[in-house]
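Lab notebook, bench 4. The sequencing result for the construct came back, and we need a structural model before the next group meeting so we can plan mutations. Quick request posted to the team channel:

Model the 3D structure of this chain.
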Amino acid sequence: MEKKAFREGLKDGIPVGLGYFVVSFALGITAGSIGLNWFQALIFSLFNLASAGEKAALEVMKYNRTFAEMALMILIVNSRYLLMSTALSQKIDPKMKNIHRFTLSAFITDELFGLNISRKGSLCPSYFYGTYLTSGPLWAVGTALGVVAGNILPANIVSALSVAIFGMFIAIIIPPAKKDKIVAALVVISFALSYGTDFIPYDKAKFSSLKIIILTVIIAGVAAILFPVKDEDEPSDTAEKEGEANAE
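Done. Here's the predicted structure in token form:
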């Protein structure tokens, strides 16, 4: 089962990795502009799988700020991963070893979260490792090549390539939305509220993740109250009635 899950993870991670490879070019160009060489950029992206967090870190480097400022900035920008880790924790098998828990929490990304949370059953470490091994390295390699390419590619081409990341998000959310009308409605509401809040004046570079957290907590909280989802091992109302009838 673990080998099968690992192979499935490798397969599902390919389109994510290709999207990462394209998008990370822009990040590599930014890294090169502040003086990082291709190897430094490679290591930098290999252990920091978050475009917004990496951009924030590069900005801190650019203006020679302190490590404390960098840590605080990245904490704020990447705060949405707290929610993702919390959601994934509900799918973790109690017997899962701590080493797997730590690894999953360290390398989770938006797209890998979407792949793993939508998978039926308990969270499988082998599947997660498969998705990471075909996506994470491509993100790092793309960043390194972006440094090498420098400003060879026109800015409008780089901007156009970055649209690929949105295609991956759509591919992740459409299948569950097609199966469940409630999920589809929540997706539409999320898009509408996220778009609407952009008209509120705030520092979008620093607090975009905070906005995501607030909207996620509100929308998910209301949905959980109005449309609670039963656990897989919880008997349905029909099963309970049948059991009562048999008992009689």
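The two ends are 41 Å apart (CA to CA).
Will bring this to the meeting.
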